Amino acid sequence: MISVKNLCKEFKNTDGSVTKVLKGINYEINKGEKIVIVGPSGSGKSTFLRCLNLMERPTSGHIIFDDVDITDPKVNINKVRERMGMVFQHFNLFNNLTVMQNLTLAPVKLGIMSETEAKEKAKGLLERVNLLDKADVYPISLSGGQKQRIAIVRSLCMNPEVILFDEPTSALDPEMVGEVLDVMKQLADEGMTMVVVTHEMGFAKEVATKVLFVDEGQILEENTPEEFFGNPQSKRLQEFLSKVL
Q1: pLDDT by residue (tens digit) across 166-201?
Q2: 41 exposed, middle or buried (CB, 10 Å; 0-12, 13-18, 19+)?
Q3: How many CB atoms lie within 10 A of CB 226?
């Protein structure tokens, strides 16, 4: 579904020097896979994820999504993003709109559904995450866990083929993490293609089809959860796991 070829990302610093954040990443993501990306802070894992839908534009390299090279400037990236959902660390809900308005805005504005269809879909999804009673409230009255579940529902309202999750639980209080991970597990069970940057190792063990270890802008190791956690190959991954498990 997504093919990443020689992906590089550099940032120019104020002094004119260059920081290389991604150093030639190659990777294939197949339909239905749950790819979980772990690694130390500053390793490039979130930048890698954000390049997949050009939230960050790569310095060089190619991202092929369903046989289309989305790094080609002629490609309408907004059309691509309609099929590639994104859930952020800090929810990014519109505080001046109710939950229902947050959920129906994009599908209606983009002509994907009528307002009636969008509301029906949003209601069904809110019911699934036990938040139907919050449809008419404003985000400010919600807990962090509720906001993040709403953010996941907002992504689902677009009928995406893949969802990218950028550290979706790292801004939450510990007791709210479980309710968000439960929704993500449910999606995984239903066959959604997912790419997840997270520090939640338990989630990686339970849900991932593959776990990637990114460090210093490269994929240093990739394996099934059993092998990744039970038999890490590189010294760097062994070190990392000894600190986080």
Answers
A1: 999 988 888 889 989 999 999 999 999 999 999 999
A2: exposed
A3: 10
